[in-house]
Specification:
The complex is a heterodimer of chains A (199) and B (273). Chain A is mostly helical and 199 residues long. Chain A folds into two domains: 1-89, Rna Polymerase Sigma Factor, Chain: A (Orthogonal Bundle), CATH 1.10.1740; 102-187, Arc Repressor Mutant, subunit A (Orthogonal Bundle), CATH 1.10.10.10. Helices cover 67% and strands 0% of the residues of chain A. Chain B folds into three domains: 1-57, no CATH class; 59-86 and 207-273; 106-193, no CATH class. The chains are: A mainly alpha (199), B mainly alpha (273).
Chain lengths: 199, 273
């Protein structure tokens, strides 16, 4: 039976570093994805992940379980990303959207069923989304990342960002609205699915 | 719920869009969408944006973070270090070392009423010096065995010296019974000659105990070395296994991308034909 995060945290606090390594194995991918989408650089995102787990490990005795372990980890990661951006004095980095590099396509890992054309389209869309996310303020971008890619509830995001629930929803709404305009401005607006006028 | 609160309400719109709304509010909002085209269009647009967001995937990365407990770095020959010993054990060890040194150096202890106590190491003896009483007692049988029947010229001197020493020591030994607490008594008593067999019977248990102790200590050291080597071997094996796993993953990814490239090239070549 798989141990829960809380059980692994308790064992780690008791001195079992293997349990913390299990937590790392469980959460390193989501944390890396969050860091990469925040700062846009692979190597720096890896550094942030490493630092986040190190800080979590050191601060583990002080973690009383008021929030979920994952939320606590997300908070550490977002703080580190903010520090990184302040330190570097630059905005998140994304590749320029024009053109598609064949080498880059080769180095990516498409699913087996995905055709090359689909892969090209997806990569292009991925770049446009990444580029559009740049224009969002940090709070809106974080709210969208946590909601879209990590499935946190509004309440969890509110606790993580330290703001009221309604503020989180407003940030999400404004962020998505800006993204819609940006994607339209960049040549291809969001593709509205057929019959999507109805829920 | 009235139309004003349903229309242009970002709070409700987000709750509905992310399915965090209670069933009754959901029904009301869906009924509103059927009659309000701007709201329906906005919901559709925001859903489409969410669909686009799903296309944004981070690149694959090799993540292999591990927390390793910070064991204190060990000196290369730390296993040779003598562990912390209690005071009595240190004293016993010092006494043992001193005893061994005395044995090796062939220490010669003499007492004479005129000259007092004299201590001389075996390596400082002149080659032609007159042997002391204790050394003479031990050396005499060897010499006799080497030259049976031969009368060494120094034998008479040795016998005379032995008699003299015995005569001098007897009164002192008698006094020792009257004053057993004096330091001189203890010193003289220790100089009473003993036979080789008696000497060996006393020394042999000491040597045996020392040998046993050394063997036990050596076994402990060897056990520690074996444990260290085993731990290092396990760590190396784990590292090698991790490395092989990463290589296999990379190889699989490379094969997959090559296959994709081949498909792409074949498709392009077919289009050109």
């Amino acid at each position: 039976m798989t141990a829960t995060d809380e059980e692994l945290v308790a064992r780690s606090v008791a001195g079992d570093s293997d349990s913390f390594n299990q937590l790392i194995l469980r959460w390193e991918r989501p944390i890396y994805a969050l860091a990469y989408r925040q700062i846009g650089r692979e190597d720096d995102a890896r550094d942030v992940v490493q630092e986040a787990f190190l800080r979590a490990f050191r601060a583990l005795p002080g973690f009383k379980g008021q929030a979920k372990f994952s939320s606590w980890l997300y908070r550490i990661t977002l703080n580190l990303c903010r520090d990184w951006m302040r330190r570097e004095r630059r905005a998140p980095f994304v590749q320029p959207p024009e053109g598609v590099d064949v080498d880059d396509l080769v180095s990516s890992e498409p699913s087996r069923a995905e055709s090359v054309e689909t892969m090209v389209t997806r990569k292009d869309l991925s770049r446009r989304v990444a580029s559009a996310m740049l224009v969002l303020p940090d709070e809106q971008r974080s709210a969208i990342l946590l909601k879209e890619y990590h499935g946190l509830t509004f309440q969890e995001i509110a606790e993580l960002q330290g703001c009221p629930l309604s503020t989180v929803k407003t940030r999400l709404y404004q962020g998505l609205s800006v993204l819609r305009r940006e994607l339209e401005r960049r040549g291809q607006g969001p593709v509205r699915p057929e019959g999507s006028g109805q829920p | 719920m009235n139309e004003t609160r349903l229309c242009g309400n970002p709070d409700l719109l987000m709750s509905y869009l992310y399915d965090e709304v209670d069933p009754r509010a959901r029904r009301d909002f869906e009924a509103h969408l059927r009659t309000c085209e701007p709201c329906a269009r906005e919901v559709a647009d925001l859903r489409a944006v969410r669909g686009d967001l799903a296309a944004w995937t981070p690149p694959e990365a090799v993540l292999d973070f591990r927390i390793v407990r910070g064991a204190a770095p060990r000196a290369r020959f730390a296993w040779l270090a003598v562990p912390e010993l209690p005071a009595w054990a240190q004293f016993a060890a010092a006494a043992l070392v001193a005893g061994i040194a005395v044995g090796i150096s062939g220490l010669d202890v003499n007492y004479h009423p005129q000259t007092g106590l004299s201590v001389r190491a075996g390596w400082s003896k002149p080659a032609s010096s007159v042997p002391g009483p204790v050394a003479a007692v031990k050396a005499a049988p060897v010499q006799a065995a080497a030259m049976p029947g031969a009368e060494a010229p120094w034998k008479a001197d040795l016998a005379a010296l032995r008699e003299q020493l015995r005569t001098e020591l007897q009164p002192t030994a008698a006094a020792s019974t009257a004053a057993p607490a004096s330091g001189q008594t203890r010193l003289v008593a220790s100089l009473v000659p003993m036979s080789d067999a008696e000497f060996m019977s006393r020394v042999r248990p000491l040597l045996t105990a020392s040998e046993t102790r050394l063997q036990r200590e050596m076994a402990l050291r060897i056990g520690q070395v074996v444990r260290d080597m085993d731990t290092q071997r396990r760590a190396d094996m784990a590292r090698v296994a991790d490395g092989i796993g990463v290589l296999e993953g990379r190889t699989g990814a490379a094969v997959a991308t090559q296959r994709e490239m081949m498909n792409y090239l074949m498709r392009v070549s077919q289009v050109q034909k």
